[in-house]
Amino acid sequence: MKDHEMRRILKQVLKPGRYTGGEYGQVIKDKDKVKARFAFCFPDTYEIGMSNLGVRLLYGVLNREEDIWCERVYAPWVDMEQQMRENGIGLFAHESRDPVRDFDIVGFTLQYELCYTNVLNMLELADIPLLSKDRGEDCPIVVGGGPCAYNAEPVADFFDVFSIGEGEEALVEMTRLYINMKESGTYTRKEFLRRLAAVPGFYVPSLYRVDYREDGTIAAYTPLYDDIPKRITKRIIRDMDKAYFPDRPVMPYIETVHDRIVLEVYRGCIRGCRFCQAGIIFRPVREKSPEVLDAQAKCLFENTGYDEISLSSLSISDYSELTKLTDLLLQWTEESKVSLSLPSLRIDSFTKELMEKISTVRTGGLTFAPEAGTQRLRDAINKNVCEEDLMRACRTAFEAGKSSVKLYFMNGLPTETLEDIEGIAVLAKAVDREYYPLSPRPKGKPPMVTVSVSCFVPKPFTPFQWEGQDTLEMLVEKQNHLRDCLRGEKHIRYNWHEAKVSRIEAVFARGDRRLSAALLEAHRMGIKFDGWDEFFDYDKWMEAFSGAGIDPSFYANRHFSVDEILPWEIIDCGVSREFFLRERAKAYRSETTPNCREHCSGCGANKLGGVRSCCPGLSD
User: Fold this and answer.
1) pLDDT reported for residue 443
2) How far is CA 392 from CA 352, 354, 551, in A?
3) In the structure, what pLDDT confidence band is assigned to residue 488 with cuts at 50, 70 and 90?
4) CB–CB of 128/100 below 8 Å?
5) Coil/strand/helix, residue 379
6) Using CA atoms, how far apart are residues 123 and 139, in angstroms rounded to an integer?
7) Which domains does the chain have, with CATH numbers?
8) N or C, which end of the chain has less CB nearby within 10 Å?
9) Per residue in 148-173, pLDDT tens?
């Protein structure tokens, strides 16, 4: 797109900074010296995509290769899309403004099931055929990755290949194979995908036949060739101290969701919450050393000027050397007026010492996640925290001068009863009461306890993957019951997640390839930006499912049999089916499993290897 055309169009849109490019830190290369061009697409707005650590990592690691140029692409907001369609402008890359269709490889990160319609919209805007089978030799290779790729089946018809697991090494290998085949004159789409399917960590859906039984369940996955694997094992980075990290991130011109330094402390999780997919698919735990993290934090501060560092992990208080790390950081962050943010503290690990370290640099409330209202249900989901843990954490926060606390819960969890829902209200009221015995108490500052409740969505690769989601009516009934239990509590605020959104999420989380027809129908109807309240339309989705002959309850609400083949079992996430079944049985007995540092429960993740890990045998 030419500059004068861009200037004219940007005058018509709400946030021109989403599309201008030219940010400090962006990578520009000589096209004549580049052998492969990679368009890295984030299927949501610029503000969200620019905050994603995975995008920063993969953008940097690909551009580290001299002959590969990776550029960024974000979903245009509706005002920009209207201008693009009216003026015949295709989806373009951020750095060069070249059409995405002219790239060699187009990659999408799939962070959330409700981004799928945005993927289709972006492909259409790029003038790339939506279905993989319709793409010719002149079309780019379309690759998907991210957490949702662990069940790629609902979008399998739209992607040529999926990168399963961590992509820093895998995507470079894929692009290098593309370059080598182009240079040797052996490249065709078919042959490239065939050879890529033999590379560990890559799933090419078109090379696997799926057969179904009369009842609609899957009968078999069959590879079309003998030299491709029956199951695809995820890729991981073994040594996080040696892993690439983006030392010169692109600096946005407009405010983004997370405008700060994001310091990745470790990957994985030692906990085994039975509803949590991330805690499983990112296993095994691999930590960075405090010295490496301190050096990376200093480098990022010097190169960006940000005044906040967020320590990123699934549960920062489970980092084995958190005290040493925070001590190292505070040696220079206090003097430099840089604040530390610890966003994922567990209730049972929240201490006065930690509070003192962050209270000097953080204001406002704190967030804790009991997840369930009764001890029985917390044990069933293996949360491994008790009410006294929560009360102690809240007392510590209140004593340090905090007056607001946010509590995260879920409703619709397996084995849940209305008594468990009532337990959420009981806990919230108990937290409110913890504030008043304080002496002295901040004057004119009453406590505020925010209860935030989301709906349980059964996810692949969890012990609850076989469980059906509560019906929409049941979820709403439980939301209303909790509202009634909290009525009249002036110091307790109640927020809840829209149950209809969670139902659509469940359909695609547990779906198979037949859902591609529903996505095509939804795209035809103009459905997009489903993660945004102002665009989500449940009735339209029901119409799309009906038009495609899909019963959403077959995926969202049905209890899957432990004997059936699950849509995502073409993927090996490193954790065994037997482990999930053992954990599921323990859930129904409300029996807990200790965390990985206390005792190895034999999940199987140690077969993947890793350095500085909590799993036995991984540091060999």
Assistant:
1) 66
2) 10, 13, 47
3) very high
4) yes
5) helix
6) 11
7) 3-233 (3.40.50.280), 240-514+550-608 (3.80.30.20)
8) C
9) 999 999 999 999 999 999 999 999 99
**Rounded to an integer, what distance in angstroms lies between the CA atom of residue 431 and that of residue 408?**
13
Confidence at residue 616, expressed as pLDDT on a 0 to 100 scale? 52
- Spatial CB neighbours of 185, under 8 Å, sequence gap ≥ 6: none
| 141 within 8 A of 192, measured Cβ to Cβ | yes
User: Other C-beta atoms within 10 Å of 230: how many?
Assistant: 10
Q: Shortest CA distance to 511 belongs to which of 568, 455, 472?
A: 568
In angstroms, the first-to-last Cα distance of the chain is 53
Phi-psi region of 55 (alpha: psi -120 to 50; beta: other; left: phi over 0): alpha
Angle, CA 314 vertex, CA 310 and CA 318 arms, to 5°: 90
**Neighbour tally for 444: CB within 10 Å:** 5
> E strand or H helix at 294, and its extent?
helix 290-304
**Angle (CA) 169 171 175, round 5°:** 120
CA atoms within 13 A on the CB side of 136: 3
69 three-state secondary structure: strand
Alpha-carbon distance 151 to 516, whole Å?
Answer: 13
d(CA 342, CA 368): 12
What would the two tokens of residue 67 be?
Answer: 């002959």
pLDDT in tens, 65-92: 999 999 999 999 999 999 999 999 999 9
> Across the strands, what pairs with 203?
162
Residue with tokens 């409110």: 432
Judging by beta carbons within 10 Å of its beta carbon (0-12, 13-18, 19+), is residue 30 exposed, middle or buried?
Answer: exposed
Which two structure tokens, joined as six digits, stand for 199?
């590379």
Q: Is the peptide bond before 99 cis (omega within 30 degrees of 0)?
A: no
- Measured CA to CA, the distance from residue 174 to residue 163 in angstroms comes to 9
pLDDT in tens, 335-384: 999 988 887 778 888 887 887 777 544 445 688 999 999 999 999 999 99
Q: Following CA atoms 295, 297, 301, 306 in sequence, which dihedral angle do they give, to the nearest 10 degrees?
A: 180
Cβ neighbours, 10 Å, residue 14: 9
pTM of the model: 0.96
Between CA 166 and CA 230 the distance in angstroms is: 20
Q: Where are the beta strands (DSSP E) in 541-613?
A: 571-572
Amino acid at 614: C
Cβ proximity of 280 and 326 under 8 Å: no
Cβ neighbour number for residue 219 with a 10 Å cutoff: 13
Instruction: List the one residue out of 500, 496, 498, 499 whose CA is nearest residue 483.
Output: 496
pLDDT on residue 501:
98
Q: What is the pLDDT of residues 279-312, one digit of tens each?
A: 999 999 999 999 999 999 999 999 999 999 999 9
